[in-house]
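Worked example (supplementary).
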Amino acid sequence: MALEKDGRDGFTSRFGIICAAAGSAIGLGNIWRFPYVVGESGGGAFLLVYLGFILLLGIPVMLSEFVIGRRGQRNALGSFKRLAPGKPWYLVGVMGIVAAFMILAFYSTIAGWTLEYVVKSLTNSFADKDASEINRLFVSFHTQAFWPLFWQIIFMGMTAWIILSGVQKGIERYAKILMPFLILLLIIMAIRSVTLPGAGQGLSFLFRPDFSALNSRVMLAALGQAFFSLSIGMGALITYGSYIQKQNNLGNISVEVSLADTLIALLAGVAIFPAVFAFGLDPADGPGLIFTVLPNIFQQMPGGYFFAIIFFVLLSIAALTSSISILEVVVAYLTEELNMTRRKATIMASIAATFVGVFCTLSFGALGNISIGGLSIFGLLDFTASNLLLPLGGLLIVVFVGWYMKRSDVKDEISNSGSLKARFFDALMFILKFVAPVAIAIVLFDSLGII
Ligand code: PHE
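After joint prediction of all chains, the assembly is encoded as:
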């Protein structure tokens, strides 16, 4: 990050911001969460709805966040305060900070599992194991207390360390090499997966829509997954938007990041579902899905030992570039609004998130019998943050840009003060004013039984 004239950090290049935003978007959401939510939601029909939401709602919300952040030149909460002084809009930022804590808590649980799987791959733990033994390995790991907590704390420590030492620049540079590498690896895994005997069933599960599987719960799951995967609805991209330079094209960045994110999720789906069916596993297995499926694929690959290591390392890094964007929401708020030092803010925020995270991690084992409205602690935090707070945040964000901000100000941001043509501007405003708010509200309130 380079210092701009007004003393704020900023991304130094168009490439840097693309890497940072894509780094935020691409993470466990694509490779861990997407497959298990597709699996629980019946497959193909969910996928279609999901893709529709990305295009119609995801890209416009992402662009809106960038507009708010770059115009406001502050953290998620401060940007609203600046653009709407004396109005309650800053509460959207407050909601985002709450969502950030919740997501960090359960994200670090799963990222911790990923770190354990780096070690399991290194020590060749999957060798000669069949699907049921690989499943047992996962169960005995994630239901215990010590190692899952150990890895969770390590992961939060790494996240805090990156935020503190400001090595985002390094991450930008790594992302440039590692993300294409991750795509390549996923392609290889997908090829191995679709050539397994019995793979066809998995492909039709993923790509042949069964519309009878659609109901309001599934619609909400698709909305939540779209928002989670794109990192939108809680101000992560408002915060990053505030670091984007004036000459960068916000519309292009939104489209490119969303496409890359969707491509990776689709590749993960193609790698996982054929294998699920080929190995006789259950697509609705829940949050453990990739950990019980992927090791089987590596077992069936020449050089699988190395592929497994590289894959879990890349996934851990992808998780890190996402978790730093979540922690940055809280840290930017604490430093800019409460005048805390960056050090103090980072340490406090990560300790608080880890504290909540411990309960998430233990909810797969020692605290497994706690059920709130039929959900575990992990399930409750994930559902509340991803399916309720992010869509609600997104709804308010599009209403803010569509209805509250001056049209000319929005145009000024999107066209870089007139230097870009932004021919899509009228269509965009129509989506922001009418289509997106109505669509989000219908899905959200319908599933909550409010309409
Ligand atoms: N989009 C990230 C992922 O897919 C998670 C995330 C959610 C990041 C919300 C920031 C904000 O892993």
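Two points are worth noting when inspecting this output. The radius of gyration is 21 Å. The chain has a mean pLDDT of 93.
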